[in-house]
Amino acid sequence: MADFETTELRANREYSQLLRLHERLRTQLQRMREELTSAQVDTLVKDIKVRTGEAPDLTTILGSVEEALRALKLSQSRIRSVILEHHETVVVEGVPNLPTHLQRFLAERAQGSGFSYEVIQDEVRGWVICWKEYTANGTIRGYGQFYERPYAYLED
Question: What is the pTM for the complete model shown?
Answer without folding.
Answer: 0.54
